[in-house]
Fold this sequence. Notes:
This protein is of the alpha+beta class. The strands form six sheets. It has a four-stranded antiparallel beta sheet with strand order 16-5-18-17. A four-stranded antiparallel beta sheet has the order 13-6-15-14. Strands 9-8-11-10 form a four-stranded antiparallel beta sheet. Strand 17 (553-558) and strand 18 (561-571) form a beta hairpin. The chain starts with a helix and ends with a helix. 22% of the residues are buried. The model is unreliable at 1-39 (pLDDT under 50).
Amino acid sequence: MMEFMRSMASGFIAKILMLLLVLSFAIWGIADVFGRFGQSAIATVGDTEIDARDFQSELLLEVNSLSSRLGQRLTAAQTQAFGVPNQVLGRMINEATLNDLASTFNMGLSSTELAKRIAEEPAFQTAGKFNRNQMALVLRNAGTTEDRYVTNREELEIRRQLAQGLTGNSAISNTALKVFSDFSFEKRDVRYIALKEADVDTIEDPTDEALKAYYEDNKVAFRAPEYRSFVVLKLEPGDIMDPSAVTDQDAKTYYENVSNRFVQPEKRQMQQILFGSKEDAQAALDKIKAGASFEDIMAERNLSESDVDFGLMAKSDIADPAAAEAIFSLDEGAVSDVVEGQFGFLLLRNAKTVPTQTSPFEDVKDQLKAEIAGDRANGEVMSMYYNVEDMRAGGSTLEEISQKLNLPLRTVTPISKAGDLEDGSKVTDLPEQEKLLTSVFDTDVDYEADPVDISNTGFAWFRVTNIVASRDRALDEVKDDVVKAWKENERTDRNAVLAGDILKELKAGKSLDAVAEEHGATIATATDVTRQVHKDLPASAVEQAFAGPLNHKATAVDGETQYVLEVVKVTDPDFNPDALELESIKARLNDNASTDLLSQLSAAILSNLGYTVNEAMLNQVVSAAR
Length: 626
């Protein structure tokens, strides 16, 4: 046993104790605190057992999360390669270590306080209040029970108490804070030349020898990808909806329930002249009453029709309430009295009245039937899904299922994982294309794979029918592509050589101005540059600008642009440990200090408690987590 303990201390557990972030998750909370009760221990820490089923549940949650981020389902080998089992078990061992310590201190939490904290969990709230139904839904989706969640949450809250009690007053010194302040807020002025590849002289065609050499060195870039052929059966509401099955009476009833959708409110074509004073507006109105036209007033004020015409507007469309009331009180063609609007005094004319219009049932009947059929189909998708699965389980092919259930079946000719066909054309209209092609290229010929979800609306089943292996293309097949790539590479190399030559001249004593004039380049200046990305300089140039002292000279590359730069000014920040801008830095550093202390404490406690890991069971659980 002692030999086993020593080997574990130098291997698996030693790695665990290096994961400070994992410890911080154990203390301050993690998203996935759900698990299931079990009876077999995968590891023990002192007298505390880590149940294998709890570990399996946590591992599956972590694998699912990582698979979702990567866009593909991880295999057991990939799960181990990413170190997920070690991280999950490491976190659980740290939790068990701290739970054991809390138990030693007889720490606990009242049921009232625990209930209060659970009720404050944002995931369990709707409209800012605790909702028990929402909590049940979240826990069900997480694959756990309320009892299990409450148990885990109580342990988490106790660990938080323990951490706060042990490290709550951990604080970084002002001396260390000043170092981080100087690093974060130091400013520099940088003069630079940006050399763009597009400005490089025309690149001549390569010689046959140069072309062949480039092709041989970069053959993999011109390699034909693997292609696959497959059939795909799609199920979405639109594939099974049948508007012809909706009766006129059903559509009529629906029409009566949503009739307001088909009512166009009364509209007025509003024309408006704005005056700076009530007296001016009244004078214009008096002229109209004396026989002048609205157009005469427009001409006096040099206004065109586009200046005064607001088009047909419903009353609710008019932002100015006074104008809305006035225009909708006028007969067609009439001019209002002086109206005191939001921005001045107005004369309004109702140039045209369009009365309320209601679309008759017959005009919208087909639209309504399609909507009703769509709603019905939404409810029938899952029933159809189970039909398809039952038929597949019974040995039916996708072709047979398509014919029996009248679902669309598509044959996809040899296609790459990126969606390219062998003839160079691109496919972009497959259902959930990226996810579907990822699954297709993870599946063998004729393998009955799981369906791919189509958003939240349906499913797509597929069967791979043929695989064309990746191969090297002959130079003659891809000559034009190789010539193009050679020229692009040559352009990039020449631009980099030019930047390097300019930097040598600067370091030899030439001024940036002299070098720029000699090469016909333009000098730009970026001021107050900090280590964060600057609006004028890319991250690579900012990094180089802070790689040396005042007068530091360097090159940087960003995409197709080479930067040659010189630091011409360095400004150290004023230091005030109580400055508002340092609060977030101070908080992060204090948290890191707390985590470091807890890491050392956990290591010491773990050493005293002793631990064991059931490696056979660990391997078995990891292999099953797919």
